[in-house]
Amino acid sequence: MDELVNLVVQKTGIPEAAAKQAVEVVLGYLKQKLPAPIAGQIDTAVSGSGKLDDVTKGLKNFLKNS
Predict the structure, then answer these.
(1) Are 7 and 26 within 8 A, CB to CB?
(2) Is the C-alpha dihedral spanning 20, 29, 62, 66 positive or negative?
(3) CB neighbours of 33 closer than 8 A, spacing ≥ 6?
(4) What is the pLDDT of residue 12?
(5) pTM
(6) Which domain does 12 fall in, by range?
(7) Over the stretch 16-65, which tens digit does the pLDDT of each residue have?
(8) Distances from the Cα of 29 to the Cαs of 15, 32, 36, 38, 42, in angstroms?
(9) Number of structural domains in the chain
């Protein structure tokens, strides 16, 4: 998540604490709106232990079947 927070700081110029809060709000929103398997992959990808490709594939499958 630190990488994402740093990106928000760089792109917006807002303080790190505000960027972290913004990232947490967005991730929380996405996890509420997406199916549980995909939401779990978001946590994994953001923690740095997963691959963003897995989230993308899951999201594509979800949208394809909706």
Answers:
(1) no
(2) negative
(3) none
(4) 95
(5) 0.67
(6) 2-65
(7) 999 999 999 999 998 898 888 888 888 777 776 655 556 566 666 666 77
(8) 21, 5, 13, 13, 11
(9) 1
